[in-house]
Amino acid sequence: MRSDLKNMRLKLVEYLSCPNCSTDLSLEVLVKEGEEILTGLLFCEKGHTFPITGGIPRMLPSSLAEYSHKILDSIPPEREPELEELIKKVKACSPDEDYDIGTRKNFSNEWDNHDIGGRTWAMELEDRVKWFFLDSIRIPEPELDGKMMLDAGCGNGSQSVAYTKFGLEVIALDLSSGLEKGYEFRDRYESGAPSRVHFVQADLQNPPLKKGLFDIIHSAGVLHHTPNTERTFRALTPLLKESGTFYVWLYKYEAVVTPIVNSLRAITTRIPQGLFAQIAQIGSVPFIGFCWLVDKLGIRKYEIPDRREAVIAVHDIFGAPYAHYHSFDEVVDWFHSEGMLEVWPCNDDRRGFGVCGR
Ligand SMILES: C[S@@+](CC[C@H](N)C(=O)[O-])C[C@H]1O[C@@H](n2cnc3c(N)ncnc32)[C@H](O)[C@@H]1O
Ligand SMILES: [Zn+2]
Asked: In whole angstroms, what is the distance from residue 6 CA to residue 11 CA?
């Protein structure tokens, strides 16, 4: 397994391209542990530079500025002047913070509460894999072996790791630091293959990936948290192979609940993320109480979340800067207009719905 890892990491470089100019990338390895590249630099043909830290390529516009100290801490002293010079140059022409720092901070704080590999969205990991993936994509399990998959907005990354047990090779992409949890989980998930999952920190609106790479793009509960759901959907479709399968799960509009949530969001999304993270810890208690009451009164069947799950839900519902609601018909039109002939409804529940197309 270990000797596989190097190949896999090198292979990942072949899958990536520059998010700014779409040219190919070359890799400079700075720190390796065994066969695995922990720290390094990726250069595009036009000189845009992105760091790899903690084994994860960081492909956001501000990544080099953000992680420069980590790069400098981990290189041999004789290379420091040269790299400091490079970092200075790159910092001068790249922003210190990303445009969508609010989304990034909210979800990074959200996933700090995830108990690695544990329950989220009121489901155990295996149930999430079944509900969001196996039951939806209409590909028989034995045919998944060897396919390339993009987990677009992988969150805590545990599902991305679990998908490898079907023989899939998975690129797990997210804006937040949640994917660091997934990276850790690679080695802990016994039926998975750590060398077949690659975590990449990047923006789905501008994905640093080669076109026509994926057999499956899977995006659960993500695109509605970007500034424009449809635009992000269309930014991803070129990554699909001609016969590829695209799955999305999106929020739906609920007649009573959505207006109430939205009027609260008008206040909660204005709270600075650091403070909101503290409020979410306290707010998780009435949230659990609310779920319990609604369930007991028989208004709706609610799984009662534990404290960590409730904090995650509070971040998701009240902290995310963008939350758009869509209808099944509207999303089916997007699929058709992208040339997908076969489109079907999948896991529909009270909060949202899945659509899959090929
Ligand atoms: C509700 S979580 C869903 C995570 C995961 N798919 C799941 O089912 O548990 C939404 C995720 O989308 C990510 N996200 C939002 N906007 C993004 C963007 N523009 N690029 C990449 N990831 C993004 C967030 O960081 C967050 O982890
Ligand atoms: Zn470039």
From this structure: 8
- Do 132 and 347 contact (CB within 8 A), yes or no? yes
Instruction: Measure the CA–CA gap between 26 and 148, rounded to whole angstroms.
Output: 22
Structural domains in the chain plus CATH codes? 12-98 (no CATH), 103-253+322-357 (3.40.50.150)
Q: Cite the DSSP H helix spans in the chain.
A: 2-15, 63-73, 80-92, 101-112, 125-129, 158-163, 178-185, 229-236, 257-268, 273-296, 307-314, 328-337
Please compute Rg for the chain using Cα positions.
20
Predicted confidence at residue 149, as pLDDT, reads: 98
Q: What is the pLDDT of residues 98-119, one digit of tens each?
A: 668 999 999 999 999 999 989 9
Determine the 3-state secondary structure of 30 from DSSP: strand
> For ligand 1, what atom is nearest to the CA of residue 178?
27
Instruction: Name the packing angle between helices 178-185 and 101-112 (round to 10°).
Output: 40
Per the structure block, which two tokens stand in for 163?
């998908």
Cα(115) to centroid(ligand 2), Å:
37
Question: Atom 10 in ligand 1: which residue has the minimum CA distance?
Answer: 222
Q: Which ligand is nearest to the CA of 43?
A: 2
Ligand 2 center–CA 237 separation, angstroms:
21
311-357 pLDDT tens trace: 999 999 999 999 999 999 999 999 999 999 999 999 988 889 999 99
Pocket of ligand 1 (CB under 6 A): 103, 107, 120, 153-155, 174-176, 178, 203-205, 220-222, 225-226, 316
Average per-residue pLDDT for the chain:
91
